[in-house]
Design a protein that fits this description.
Distance between the termini: 66 Å
CATH architecture of the largest domain: 3-Layer(aba) Sandwich
Radius of gyration: 22 Å
Number of strands: 9
Number of domains: 2
Order of helices and strands: HHHHHEEHEHEHEEHHEHEE
CATH class of the largest domain: Alpha Beta
Bound molecules: glutamine
Helix content: 25-40%
Strand content: 15-25%
CATH superfamily of the largest domain: Vaccinia Virus protein VP39
Shape: elongated
Number of helices: 11
Strand order of the largest sheet: 5-4-3-6-7-9-8
Structural class: alpha/beta
């Protein structure tokens, strides 16, 4: 990469092509393909069909800059500005957590809970919405639902609003810390959240994508259970009778979260495993009446 004789040298400069660029970096092929597609604004099929076409120098420079950033560890989603979640393409920026595949379990469980409750026009709350991935996905799957989403970060709410608008989802966004954002709101039938749950000082925070994500979206700065405990304890005040709460949590936090839920008065308390077999979300329902 970056081998462009600009002066001297008698050898003809061969213009870069898709083939030469993809072969010229130590990055995984899938990632170089995605970065090149992003720079050129083309599909995978285009790359294959135009394998040896000469490429524009500006595009080549942009691609090489992105490859260098990727090699330095920046997350793919921040480099391309997008991440798929629940089959929708979300805008992501460094100010928001990158949606994770395991969080789709939270959305699927939320939709199942709404179906089980059987209410029309259910009210759903997503606390700490970040990119809006959860709230927007629920709103798109249940267009009749009144979805409210909060975040402490105005930057995150900006991204979430853009996603809702671009994907055609009806979500009301409110700034503020957890339940403090909700003044004047009516009770909800379902509350969901993927709060920061990584312990302060957890070595994972210094690895991979997490190094580049907003710390406030990853860790509570304490034992990793502070936000989960707070949400479980306060949720009953904001739930209608029979309402449910489901939260995502870390691989070793399910028993603690079930304890928080029971202590707050929830019944039908349960944890569900993600595709990796890890207890990843826990939730429960308030008794009717
Ligand atoms: N699932 C993220 C991770 O472990 C953490 C997200 C969160 O704290 N809510 O990479």
């Amino acid at each position: 990469m970056g081998d462009h004789p600009s002066s001297g040298g008698s050898r003809e400069e061969t213009p870069a092509s898709v083939r030469s660029l993809l072969g010229g970096t130590p990055l995984p092929r899938l990632e170089t393909q995605m970065l090149l597609q992003h720079v050129l604004g083309v599909s995978r099929a285009w790359l294959i069909a135009h394998d040896t076409d000469p490429l524009d120098k500006a595009h080549v420079r942009e691609f090489e800059a992105l490859c260098a950033r990727r090699l330095a560890g920046e997350p793919m989603a921040y480099l391309t500005g997008r991440r798929e979640f629940m089959g929708h393409s979300f805008v992501v920026e460094p100010g928001v957590l990158i949606p994770r595949p395991e969080t789709e379990l939270l959305v699927e469980t939320a939709l199942g809970e709404l179906a089980r409750q059987g209410a029309e026009r259910p009210r759903v709350l997503d606390l700490g919405t970040g990119s809006g991935a959860i709230a927007v996905s629920v709103a798109l799957a249940r267009p009749d639902a009144e979805v409210v989403a909060t975040d402490l970060s105005e930057a995150a709410l900006g991204v979430a609003r853009r996603n809702a608008r671009a994907l055609g989802a009806r979500v009301e966004f409110l700034p503020g810390s957890w339940f403090q954002a909700l003044e004047g709101q009516r009770p909800f039938d379902l509350i969901v959240s993927n709060p920061p749950y990584i312990r302060d000082g957890d070595p994972h925070l210094a690895q991979g994508d997490l190094r580049f994500e907003p710390p406030g979206a990853l860790t509570d700065g304490a034992d990793g259970l502070a936000a989960l405990a707070h949400i479980a304890a306060q949720a009953p005040h904001w739930l209608a009778p029979g309402g449910g709460l489901w939260m995502e949590h870390g691989y070793d936090q399910a028993a603690d979260v079930r304890r928080f839920l029971l202590k707050a008065g929830f019944g039908r308390v349960d944890s569900l495993r993600d595709l990796a077999g890890i207890e990843r979300i826990s939730g429960g329902t308030l008794n009717d009446g």
